[in-house]
Amino acid sequence: MKTRVTELLGIEYPIIQGGMAWVAEQHLAAAVSNAGGLGLIGGANAPGEVVRDMIRKCRELTDKPFGVNVMLMSPYAPDVAKVVVEEGVKIVTTGAGDPAKYMNEWKAAGIKVIPVVASVAHAKLMQKAGADAVVAEGTESGGHIGEATTMTLVPQVVDAVDIPVIAAGGIADGRGMAAAMMLGAEGVQIGTRFVASTEAQVDEAYKNRIVKAKDIDSEVTGRSHGHPVRCLRNQMTREYVRLEAEGKTMEELEYLTLGSLRKAVQEGDIQNGTVMAGQIAGMIHDIRSCKEIVESINSQCEALLHKNW
Ligand code: TUI
Q1: Which of 33, 37, 61, 254 is the most exposed place for a label (fewest CB within 10 A)?
Q2: What's the gap in Å between 305 CA and the centre of ligand 1?
Q3: Sorting pLDDT into bands at 50, 70 and 90, what band is 1?
């Protein structure tokens, strides 16, 4: 399947791995890139030097293209923005904010810049600022989310910009990918399905929580604070949502979320930790290699798009 996204990124399949905090490190990124998709290293809240180290280690694991996601709410975002230039990274995606102030420096360095957007207005701004493509991320996604669904956001962004659109949120198999392509997307970004992969350096308890998740297990914390985060329901989210309804502020509830993603990803504490995952977790029933995931999604998608209805 050739699209402007495969051409732009020099990849075989238009499948991009999400730049997930604490999850998207060099082993996962290299595995997705080696499978013919685009692996991403997630800068998340890590200092620039930690990201530099992950980039160098990823180069040892793959000679295929890979990228870095710069999480713009991070206090280290300005450092990470410099590190990607110094390390000669060719592809950068951004999340959780507006990357406009880095755009000129990145473009001058020959970096392909792909901001993640959650609205048409932001997509248009990004095109004007020189973005090479955008990821239109629906509210089905795990982690920090916007309001619009993938089904409604993708076609509206496709109509609003000329650059290629990559769909994200709620996609974990070839059916979801085919649907996204029918909405006008030229590629997909996938997160949760890659967490439940053999190569993800994530505690088995976290992976198994995704495998066991049901359709209604998804919860959003922080809506009333203007910082909605989607994860799987557990003891922590129940407590958070209860206290949030009582009017507790984000600062008052920080004791529940400080370091909580690391707790879940690295220690496997899926009751007190934050188990970020998208709404599609309920459809994921097994842990598979990145190669199997990428190839099965692509082949199922191609078969569906060629079907004579
Ligand atoms: O960034 C994400 N997802 C994330 S970041 C993250 S790290 C984190 N950890 C704990 C609490 C909060 C965050 C976990 N998941 N997705 C991309 C994304 N970007 N979704 C929505 C947006 C977005 C939202 C508002 C992009 C831009 C924006 O406003 C634009 C502006 O003008 O500021």
Answers
A1: 254
A2: 31
A3: confident
308: exposed, middle or buried (Cβ count in 10 Å: 0-12, 13-18, 19+): exposed
* CA distances to 206, 244, 248, 259, 291 from 253, in Å: 23, 8, 7, 13, 40
- Tokens read off for 80: 């990470």
Task: Collect all residues with Cβ–Cβ distance below 8 Å to 118 and sequence separation of at least 6.
Answer: 136, 137, 138, 139, 145, 146, 147, 148, 153
DSSP label at 47? -
- The fraction of the chain above a pLDDT of 90, given in percent, is 99
Q: Where do the DSSP E strands lie in 81-237?
A: 91-95, 112-117, 134-137, 143-144, 165-168, 187-190, 218-221, 229-232
Ligand 1: which residues within 6 Å by Cβ?
21, 44, 71, 73, 95-98, 116-118, 122, 137, 143-146, 229
pLDDT at 308: 83
pLDDT tens profile 74-83? 999 999 999 9
pTM: 0.98
Considering the domain delimited by 4-201+285-305, tell me its CATH architecture: Alpha-Beta Barrel (3.20)
Coil, strand or helix: which one is 95?
strand
Q: Rounded distance, CA 203 to CA 200, Å?
A: 9
- Which residues make up the CATH 3.20.20.70 domain(s) of the chain? 4-201+285-305
Q: Answer for the pair 156, 120: CB distance below 8 angstroms, yes or no.
A: yes
Per-residue model confidence as pLDDT tens digits over 124-170 = 999 999 999 999 999 999 999 999 999 999 999 999 999 999 999 99
Q: What is the pLDDT of the chain when averaged over all its residues?
A: 98
